[in-house]
Design goal:
The complex is a heterodimer of chains A (244) and B (196). With 244 residues, chain A is mainly α. Chain A has 7 helices and 2 strands, in the order ββααααααα. In chain A, helix 4 packs antiparallel against helix 6 and helix 6 packs antiparallel against helix 7. The longest helix of chain A is centred in the C-terminal third of the chain and has 37 residues. Chain A is globular. Chain A starts with 18 loop residues before the first strand and ends with a helix. The model of chain A has no long low-confidence stretch (mean pLDDT 89). Chain B has one domain. In chain B, 90% of the residues lie in helices and 0% in strands. Chain B is built from 3 helices and no strands. In chain B, helix 2 packs antiparallel against helix 3. About 7% of the residues of chain B have low confidence. The chains are: A mainly alpha (244), B mainly alpha (196).
Chain lengths: 244, 196
């Protein structure tokens, strides 16, 4: 059973079954790791912002570096108009990052390796960005689908492509994160299985792969959180500053 | 026999793993909708809580901390700039004072030198004058002596000649006749003795 690389993604109930109407909202291992990630973020950043010293201690430095990192990311991609959405993008980045990173600890559950979680996040972003776009520009937001400087003959085709690409944003955003997380973890599990089955003689090669993959996966965990956040910024930029 | 077994273990065991995976995998658990609602529910709860606490409590604090540090640093930089300006002006003042005092010292030195030179010149003039006077006096005296010399010589000549005559011939000779002869002689030879 442990050899199946997909069992690590299984969700199981912790405690009693909770039902609201027909909906099952039981507390699961996924819920547990969402809560752990959120609490970890809150604890770290609370400690990091508690004491304000001119020369920051390690936690304060980390909190402030994260703050400036995300602030710079938003400023670079979406400009100063995106300032009100800073808190959301910051929490989004931190949530995804911490979920990814907690998933790297053995025997933990990776929240972001579930399509439903990433899809809910991506859909929320998609719907939110669309609403912001329509509020800021009214129906002028539809100009997003009509790029300037395109020959009239090509326009119908371009508009269709633009609409499809716009509508596929939540899917691409969610699948990117989910697939990366799932593939990485599956691969690590598979190589781990090889280590056991090839034994002491042949297990060294997959073991070394496993070690290398761990490093790669930590990089991917950070990178995917960054990509998720920066794509959100780019979508937000489209909604805030209509460039087309 | 043993070698063959090891070879099998090393190179063919993954085939058995493949079998195990194929036997146990029931597809992706992600696509099992059993806990989707639960995950959505807990995601909204946890992420919402995270967002609210971060945006209302923690991020403003971090931002305030950063702002405070920025303002503190810029204040310090400003103060440092001010002090640098002050020290620059002080340095300028100091340099001016040094320059001024240098000029003054130069002036004083020059004045002293001029005074000294003037004093020396005056003294030199005075000395020159004195020397000239002395020279003049001496020359006058010499001139006087020169002028008086022929008379005295003639007198001495007259006296000696009269005494010589007295001793030689034992007769008194009139002084006036001797003097006439001496005058005549001295007039003849004057240029020979005094005009050189």
């Amino acid at each position: 059973m442990a050899a199946n690389p997909m069992t690590q993604f299984e969700v199981y109930r912790i405690g009693p079954e909770i039902k609201v109407g027909t909906f099952d909202i039981s507390f699961t291992n996924a819920s547990l790791f969402m809560i752990i990630s959120s609490l970890a973020i809150l604890i770290i950043f609370n400690l990091g912002s508690k004491k304000n010293s001119l020369i920051p201690n390690k936690l304060q430095l980390m909190a402030e570096l994260s703050y400036t990192f995300v602030a710079k990311m938003i400023g670079d991609t979406a400009g100063s108009k995106a300032r009100p959405y800073f808190a959301f993008i910051f929490s989004l980045f931190m949530f995804v990052l911490f979920c990814n990173m907690f998933g790297m600890i053995p025997y933990t559950f990776t929240v972001t390796s579930h399509i439903i979680v990433t899809f809910v996040l991506a859909s929320f972003i998609f719907i939110g960005v669309t609403i912001i776009g329509f509020i800021k520009h009214g129906f002028g937001y539809l100009k997003l689908f009509v790029p300037s400087g395109v020959p009239v003959v090509l326009l119908p085709l371009i508009v269709v492509i633009e609409i499809i690409s716009y509508l596929s944003r939540p899917i691409s955003l969610s699948v990117r994160l989910f697939a990366n997380m799932m593939a990485g973890h599956t691969m690590m599990k598979v190589f781990g299985g090889f280590v056991i089955s090839l034994g002491i003689v042949g297990g060294w090669l997959p073991l070394s792969f496993s070690v290398a993959l761990t490093g790669l996966e930590i990089l991917v965990a950070f990178l995917q959180a960054y990509v998720f956040a920066i794509l959100t910024c780019i979508y937000l930029n489209d909604a805030l500053n209509l460039h087309h | 026999m043993n070698k063959k077994k090891i070879f099998q273990i090393v190179f063919f065991n993954f085939l058995f793993i493949g079998k195990v995976i194929a036997a146990e995998s029931g597809g992706m658990p992600q696509l099992n909708p059993e806990f989707w609602i639960s995950q959505i529910f807990w995601l909204i709860i946890t992420f919402g809580f995270l967002y609210i606490v971060l945006s209302k409590l923690i991020l403003p604090k971090i931002s305030a901390n950063l702002e405070l540090r920025k303002s503190q640093i810029s204040d310090n930089i400003e103060a440092a700039d001010k002090q640098r300006e002050q020290s620059d002006s002080k340095l300028k003042e100091y340099n001016e004072i040094i320059l001024k005092s240098k000029n003054e010292a130069k002036n004083i030195f020059n004045q002293a030198r001029e005074e000294a030179i003037m004093g020396i010149n005056k003294k030199k003039e005075n000395l020159d004058k004195q020397i000239d006077e002395e020279i003049k006096k001496a020359e006058d005296e010499i001139g006087k002596l020169k002028r008086n010399a022929p008379e005295k010589i003639t007198k001495i000549a007259i006296e000696t000649s009269s005494e010589l005559i007295k001793k030689l011939i034992g007769a008194e000779v009139n002084n006036s006749s001797i003097s006439a002869i001496v005058d005549d002689l001295s007039k003849k030879n004057q240029s020979k003795y005094y005009d050189n």
